[in-house]
Specification:
The complex is a heterodimer of chains A (about 120) and B (about 110).
Chain A (H helix, E strand, L loop, with lengths): L2 E6 L2 E2 L5 E8 L7 E7 L5 E8 L4 E3 L7 E6 L4 E6 L8 E9 L4 E5 L3 E5 L2
Parallel strand pairs in A: 2-11
Antiparallel strand pairs in A: 1-3, 3-8, 4-5, 4-9, 5-6, 7-8, 9-10, 9-11
Chain B lengths: L8 E4 L5 E6 L12 E5 L6 E4 L13 E6 L2 E6 L8 E9 L4 E4 L3 E5 L1
Parallel strand pairs in B: 1-9
Antiparallel strand pairs in B: 2-6, 3-4, 3-7, 5-6, 7-8, 7-9
The chains are: A mainly beta (about 120), B mainly beta (about 110).
């Protein structure tokens, strides 16, 4: 049974850096891409980016200049950093496993609400 | 503005059948990429409901079914139950983005 457990700071001021980590339990860590998705207060979902166990990354072009996704294979964890946040980055952030053959997000973390406010 | 288009809401009485549509373009659904559907209960993470256009993960009732044609896909829910009240999202892959794209979500209300 694959489980993703995520954590990180939930309240930030404008210009600070958002930092979240996701740990993967059960199943194989290799052979998948590990993704970050966010859900805005209006409920729309946005793909942020992904990383594989070798450190290969793909980012949404709209966020690429501010986002870094990294991986720690020794702990089966991956992390998200978003620099220079603004109120527009307020959202629930999810980590998820991306299965590359079907191109589907088949397991999700529980979500972390990140609020950016001065 | 979501890349895939869904109606904001749909409703039906218990026992009825409803369908939720998802429209894309030639760079995602129309390019042949699979469509997947997620159910999101209030306060919870999205949960995979249908993958690969028509397939149900283990544990998903067969009241849920998916289909795809051209640049559109549909999720059908038959024998509506109160527990089906949730938000439903479609997802595909987009070659222009080189990443996942989502619909804006459809809120299903059981009357």
């Amino acid at each position: 049974q694959v489980q993703l457990l995520q954590w990180g700071v939930g309240l930030l001021k404008p210009s600070e850096t958002l930092s979240l980590t996701c740990a993967v339990y059960g199943g194989s860590f290799s052979g998948y891409y590990w993704s970050w998705i966010r859900q805005f207060p209006g409920k729309g979902l946005e793909w942020i980016g992904e990383i594989n166990q070798s450190g290969g990354t793909n980012y949404n072009p709209s966020l690429k200049s501010r986002v870094t996704i990294s991986v720690d294979t020794s702990e089966n964890q991956f992390s998200l950093k978003v620099r220079s946040v603004t109120a527009a980055d307020t959202a629930v952030y999810y980590c998820a496993r991306f299965e590359g053959q079907r191109l589907v997000l088949d397991y999700w973390g529980q979500g972390t609400l990140v609020t950016v406010s001065s | 503005q979501s890349v895939l288009t869904q109606a904001p809401s749909v409703s039906g009485a218990p026992g009825q059948r409803v369908t939720i549509s998802c429209t894309g373009s030639s760079s995602n659904i129309g390019a042949g990429y699979d469509v997947h559907w997620y159910q999101q209960l209030p306060g919870k993470a999205p949960k995979l409901l249908i993958y690969g256009d028509t397939n149900r993960p283990s544990g998903v009732p067969d009241r849920f079914s998916g289909s795809k044609s051209g640049t559109s896909a549909s999720l059908a829910v038959s024998g509506l139950q109160g527990e089906d009240e949730a938000d439903y999202y479609c997802q595909s892959y987009d070659s222009s983005l080189s990443g996942c794209v989502f619909g804006g979500g459809t809120k299903l209300t059981v009357l």
